[in-house]
Write a structure and sequence with these properties.
The complex is a heterodimer of chains A (409) and B (67). Chain A is of the alpha+beta class and 409 residues long. Chain A has 18 helices and twelve strands. The longest helix of chain A is centred in the middle third of the chain and has 30 residues. Chain A starts with 7 loop residues before the first strand and ends with a strand. In chain B, strands 1-4 form a two-stranded antiparallel ribbon. In chain B, strands 2-3 form a two-stranded antiparallel sheet. Classes of the chains: A alpha+beta (409), B alpha+beta (67).
Chain lengths: 409, 67
């Protein structure tokens, strides 16, 4: 399916008109990305008034220069109800991030390996029992979405009976992310639902935080903030938004990668066989899965410190610039045959986890979850098959990945 | 007395800034935020900071060797 992008020149500004909420785009955006890159280093998308950067070098430049491409406070204050790492500047940003940076160190996360494995195995028990009895199961609701949710809620110390409600609020907030690139009425509705979800989540987290402060107990991500001296200087709404960020970030993106990893291996049986025979291929395989999946479709920044020249284009002060990470990870200037999934290609850093001061805090948690997921899946259900003409990708371009994957044996 | 040698893989760095934050006397940054090792042979009293940077680097690009 091919859409020819038409470029309009509006007073010297290269301008396009694309609706990223179009499910046809979301299911296969790669030709569009190629066209975007060919139009120049940056183009203005008129329906959303957002400036798009789709090249590897371009995204690195934007994300690597927070002094000129600052946080999108307007959007994220609405999403989270307060300031958190995503929109804080130096030096406060690193002080808050520091509350949890030890927990998210790779060597520390290895202590969580057996907990993560028991969560993965429990979900695989559920799946395997059904598919080996002949059922065809969509792995999204009860497997791919549940695993990261169970992991992050466990780390947060959310009581198991509250997890379904928390997950529902997270989904509401995901809708607000989706609405970032949807300038239609539907986008407005998603935003409204998201605002309600954020408020409800904040109320819940307020109680959780109070409980941690009043009652000693096992360490968890909420208690780490409760106990952190810096939290005494933080407004309550900023403490709550900081916890909400961890919950949100730990849910959707990883679930998309877990689901897509199944799809990619099914679509590339020779590489799937190679990993089965040689598990040492898994780490590089996971990096390639991350590159190709790249669930975060766009990261927004706002130009500050005056207009900025990008190529021949002058981008105004205050302009909203969207770094298209998924597109950047398919840039032929960096990778040969970039749309080809190839676990054997030369290993090169990619932008799936962002770049710069706001790069993903949970990067090694994500990698660990994916690793344990694939190890256990390939060990326990190596014969899985997917119904490949029924994979759906939904409408969320910002947290992007399969929304339906039918598995059988 | 062991000598520390610190090296990084700049190509894999994602410029999180974590190493600079925990060991500012050892790590600096390029204009694009990518790490540079400003002090490749740091004194022993900085060992804890350097080890913290190694452990905390999200992209795992820092190597610490001791003689």
């Amino acid at each position: 399916m091919s859409t020819q992008l038409s470029l309009i020149d509006v007073n010297g500004t290269p301008t396009i008109d694309v609706n990223f909420a179009d499910p046809n785009i979301n299911s296969n955006p790669y030709e569009l990305f190629d066209q975007l890159r060919e139009l120049g280093p940056i183009v203005l998308n008129s329906p959303t008034n957002q400036w798009l950067v789709a090249s590897y070098d371009g995204v690195r430049t934007v994300l690597g220069d927070p002094s000129r491409f600052g946080p999108d406070s307007e959007f994220f204050l609405q999403l989270y109800g307060g300031y958190n790492m995503e929109i804080l500047d130096k030096p406060h940003h690193m002080e808050v991030r520091g509350i949890w940076s030890h927990h998210f160190e790779r060597s520390q996360l290895e202590n969580w390996g057996s907990v993560i494995q028991s969560i993965v195995d429990d979900r695989l028990d559920w799946l395997i029992e059904r598919v080996r009895a002949g059922e065809v199961i969509d792995i999204i609701p009860k497997v791919a979405r549940m695993i990261p949710s169970l992991v992050i809620c466990r780390m947060l110390g959310i009581p198991p009976e509250d997890r379904p409600q928390v997950t529902q609020w997270i989904e509401g907030m995901d809708g607000m992310l989706e609405a970032q690139v949807d300038s239609t009425e539907r986008g407005d509705r998603l935003t409204q639902l998201g605002i309600e979800a954020t408020h409800a989540m904040a109320g819940y987290l307020r109680d959780q935080l109070r409980q941690r402060r009043e009652t000693p107990g096992e360490d968890d991500l909420i208690r780490m903030l409760a106990d952190a001296p810096i939290s005494r200087d933080m407004a309550e709404r900023d403490q709550l938004s900081s916890i909400a960020l961890l919950a949100l970030a730990g849910h959707g993106n990883t679930s998309k990668v877990l689901a897509n990893s199944l799809v990619l291996l099914a679509q590339n049986p020779d590489q799937r066989r190679a990993i089965l025979q040689d598990p040492s291929l898994l780490p590089d395989g996971i990096e390639e899965i991350n590159r190709v999946t790249s669930p975060v479709g766009a990261q927004s920044r706002v130009v500050r410190g005056g207009p900025i020249q990008i190529g021949s284009v002058s981008v105004p002060d205050g302009a909203r610039v969207m770094s298209l990470l998924t597109a950047a990870n398919r840039d032929p200037a960096r990778w040969d045959n970039p749309n080809q999934f190839d676990i054997f290609r030369e290993r090169k850093q990619n932008l799936a986890f962002g770049f710069g001061m706001h790069s993903c805090l949970g990067i090694n948690l994500a990698r660990l979850e994916i690793k344990i997921w694939l190890e256990r899946l390939l060990n326990r259900l190596p014969e899985y098959e997917i119904v490949s003409n029924e994979i759906e990708y939904g409408t969320n371009f910002i947290v992007r990945g399969p929304t339906k994957v039918l598995v059988s044996v | 007395m062991s000598l520390m040698r610190v090296a990084v893989s700049q190509d894999d760095c994602i410029a999180s800034g974590f190493c600079r934050h925990v060991a500012p006397a050892v790590f600096g940054e390029r204009s694009d935020g990518v790490v540079i090792v400003s002090n490749p042979n740091p004194p022993e009293e900085l060992r804890e900071q350097v080890e913290s940077a190694v452990a905390g680097c999200p992209a795992r690009v820092i190597r610490l060797e001791s003689d």
